[in-house]
């Protein structure tokens, strides 16, 4: 098995933007990793899953949405719809055959949207602290009236970030576009195996969100794993193993 990491490649979107990705070839079903909000494809979870797939001879794709990581564009120009389009483009033009989608945080929302739009291409789905509807429920709903007015007037606001010194810019376009893609208000018409992993000490996305997803999904093959001492990232060695074990079992199940 080759020791070198898969080379960095780019995919050109219809508007000329470039989406960076790394593809490890292998047999299917393949695995496709979808990162979180302001995250990139170099994170521990993506790398651990890539290692798992290479060991098993499975195809694996990790990529950066536009405005993230190695891809072109500005983060502030991004929306849920645009990032879902990026994911579909990678699925359509890079991946071959059925895929198991692994979505971390916002990536869980993007994974659900991708599966709904490409049901024949998605064999299973794993959410890691999945955060559908977070723009509305976790960002906009938490703003006070004055801040909401500023967002409406100025088109953007800057919120403190717990993950670095720079604030996170939230745009009116992100909030308004997010409303077009909300999922938790009704049934989620997916009939595939779904695994949802969530830390009960997650201060960014409540663990109850994963329970709500499980309740909404049509499939009966749905499991929720709650980690009592787990936070949001779930990148500790024991949690990476838990994730890899879950994905490995799905690879066996869907082969």
List the main descriptive attributes of the protein structure presented here:
alpha/beta, two-stranded antiparallel sheet, 255 residues, 23% strand, Rossmann fold
Q: What would you say this structure looks like, in words?
A:
The protein has helices at 44-56, 80-93, 106-117, 134-139, 145-154, 172-178, 208-216, 237-254; strands spanning 8-12, 18-24, 27-34, 58-63, 99-104, 122-128, 156-159, 168-171, 194-199, 222-227. It is of the alpha/beta class and 255 residues long. It has a single domain, classed as Alpha/Beta hydrolase fold, catalytic domain (Rossmann fold). The chain has an eight-stranded mixed sheet with strand order 1-2-4-3-5-6-9-10, sandwiched between helices. Strands 7-8 form a two-stranded antiparallel sheet. The longest helix is centred in the last third of the chain and has 18 residues, at 237-254.
Work out the number of β strands. Answer: 10
Mean pLDDT, to the nearest integer, reads 96
Q: Please count the helical segments.
A: 8
Question: What fold name goes in the CATH topology slot?
Answer: Rossmann fold
Report strand order across the widest sheet. 1-2-4-3-5-6-9-10
Q: Into which percentage range does the β-strand content fall? A: 15-25%
Shape call: globular
CATH class: Alpha Beta
Query: H/E order of the elements?
Result: EEEHEHEHEHHEEHEHEH
Low-confidence stretches: none
Structural class label: alpha/beta
What portion of residues is helical? 25-40%
Main sheet characteristics = 8 strands, mixed
Provide the CATH architecture: 3-Layer(aba) Sandwich
Distance between the termini: 21 Å
Number of structurally distinct domains: 1
- Computed Rg: 17 Å
CATH evolutionary superfamily: Alpha/Beta hydrolase fold, catalytic domain
């Amino acid at each position: 098995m080759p020791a070198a990491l898969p080379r960095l490649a780019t995919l050109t979107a219809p508007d000329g933007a470039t989406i960076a990705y790394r593809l490890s070839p292998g047999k299917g079903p393949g695995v496709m990793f979808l990162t979180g909000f302001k995250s990139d494809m170099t994170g521990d979870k993506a790398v651990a899953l890539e290692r798992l797939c290479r060991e098993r001879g499975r195809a694996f794709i990790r990529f950066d949405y536009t405005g993230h990581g190695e891809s072109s564009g500005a983060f502030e120009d991004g929306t849920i719809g645009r990032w879902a389009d990026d994911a579909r483009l990678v699925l359509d033009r890079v991946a071959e055959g059925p895929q198991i989608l692994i979505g971390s945080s916002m990536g869980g929302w993007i994974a659900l949207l991708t599966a709904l739009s490409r049901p024949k291409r998605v064999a299973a789905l794993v959410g890691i602290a999945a955060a559908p509807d977070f723009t509305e429920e976790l960002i906009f709903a938490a703003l006070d009236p004055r801040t909401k007015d500023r967002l409406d007037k100025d088109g953007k606001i800057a919120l403190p970030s717990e993950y670095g010194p720079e604030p996170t810019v939230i745009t009116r376009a992100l909030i308004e576009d997010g409303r077009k893609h909300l999922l938790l208000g009704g049934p989620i018409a997916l009939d595939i195996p779904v695994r949802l992993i969530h830390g009960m000490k997650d201060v960014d996305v409540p663990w109850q969100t994963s329970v709500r997803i499980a309740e909404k999904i049509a499939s009966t093959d749905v499991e929720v794993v709650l980690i009592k001492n787990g936070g949001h990232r779930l990148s500790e060695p024991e949690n990476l193993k838990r994730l890899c074990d879950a994905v490995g079992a799905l690879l066996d199940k869907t082969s």
